[in-house]
Amino acid sequence: MGIPRVKLPADARPDTLAVREGLPPSQYGENSESIYLTSSFVHPDAATAARRFANEEDAFVYSRFSNPTVTMMERRLAAMEGTSGCIGTASGMASILMLVLGLLKAGDHVVCSQSVFGSTVKLFQDFAKFGIETSFVSQTDVAQWQAAMRPNTKLLFAETPSNPLTEVCDVRALAHIAHAGGGEARALLAVDNCFCSPALQQPVKLGADLIIHSGTKYLDGQGRVIAGAVCGPEELIETKFVPVMRSAGMSLSPFNAWVVLKGLETLSIRMQAQSARALALAQWLETQPAVERVFYPGLPSHPQHTLAMVQQNGSGGAVVSFIVKGGREGAFATIDATRICSITANLGDTKTTITHPASTSHGRLSEPQRQAAGIVQGLIRVAVGLDDVEDIKADLLNGLSQLA
Ligand SMILES: *Cc1c(COP(=O)(O)O)cnc(C)c1O
């Protein structure tokens, strides 16, 4: 029995998997995948229902556990990340919650980059009250990760490149530290692959065990839904995360799964196009007299440029940050002079977005914490979309020309 698979050659390449992996069509032979908006599934008889509830037969039972449209998205994303399993979640944060609930218990220890998404830091800090302690270390200094390892370290958590300064961590080195463990047991390395997506970076190929996604960002790519996923070995997904999903219910809605499923079909060409525009914008920003510094992994001036090019398939990604003259006033003037860029802290949209991290995404930090993290008042982050880059340059020049 079991849920059938799409018939594809075993050596089908990533671009093909991105448009075809999922589930076989229904008896109607639809070419575009269906949205199964149903909360439950009907069984032919009571004995079959009993077997399915007891997990003795693989079938759809209830959409808190699994759903055909969600399964299509999971299979497609797993194929693109190069993992054997994936589980969709209601949001990116729900996938990190799932990770903690599925893998850790009181007394366990986590080592996490201090440069991860703000809500991720908060979530790991909150788990201290359940006896799970987290040490926050430098994004780029591998020695700090090594030094933070303890006999009870079970998980290393990284996100690369970081937001908004695009610092790159060495996934291979972190995998090595995780697998050597801090005591007898080996720890797992989880990587939040939000910024590059599998189109540019496949952390599992560099040794990571689990991949975290906010489907809200590039996977959908058009700013329409909140979604998330954990990718990893199927055995781990089935034994650690599926039971959490059944009992805790941070399930992905079939409609949102369908939107992400469709987004995955164009992920690779979007990431290439948006990264090419981001590189052009970053190079141009470096020549602007009102710009003090540009942060973009695709520029040779980036401290981890060489590592980024190896890990990210030769691409810098689509997020560019830069410091303008005049501190907060200069940054606000630049943002307020734009007519095209959307002023929003979201990213991964086809529409280019612009934000002032010090007063939005990092606004809850104290000024000394922000200084330590390098989030200065003059910093602006642009997540480049599919707008014509010449229009984006002109949009930024409106404000920059007043500062120089
Ligand atoms: C947005 C984001 C998240 C959280 O995702 P949601 O879908 O908003 O819950 C996690 N990690 C990174 C890197 C993000 O950018």
Order of helices and strands: HHHEHEHEHEHEHEEHHEHEHEEHEH
Q: Strand fraction band?
A: 5-15%
The helicity comes to 25-40%
The profile of the biggest β sheet is: 7 strands, mixed
Reconstruct the topology from this structure.
Elements lengths: L13 H7 L25 H8 L14 H14 L3 E5 L2 H12 L5 E5 L4 H9 L6 E5 L4 H7 L4 E7 L11 H10 L7 E5 L4 H4 L9 E5 L13 E5 L1 H15 L5 H33 L4 E5 L9 H7 L7 E6 L2 H10 L5 E2 L9 E3 L11 H7 L5 E5 L5 H15 L1
Parallel strand pairs: 2-3, 2-4, 4-5, 5-6, 10-11
Antiparallel strand pairs: 1-7, 6-7, 8-9, 9-12, 11-12
Helix pairs in contact: 1-3, 1-10, 3-10, 4-5, 4-9, 10-14, 12-14
Bound molecules: pyridoxal-5'-phosphate.
3D structure, described in words:
The chain has 404 residues and is of the alpha/beta class. Helices cover 39% and strands 14% of the residues. The protein has 2 domains: 252 residues, Aspartate Aminotransferase, domain 2; 136 residues, Aspartate Aminotransferase, domain 1 (Alpha-Beta Complex), CATH 3.90.1150.10. The strands form 2 sheets. A 7-stranded mixed beta sheet has the order 1-7-6-5-4-2-3, with helices on both faces. The chain has a 5-stranded mixed beta sheet with strand order 8-9-12-11-10. Strand 4, helix 7 and strand 5 form a beta-alpha-beta unit. Helix 10 packs across helix 14 and helix 12 packs across helix 14. It is globular and about 75 Å long. The mean pLDDT is 96. The structure holds pyridoxal-5'-phosphate. Pyridoxal-5'-phosphate binds next to helix 4.
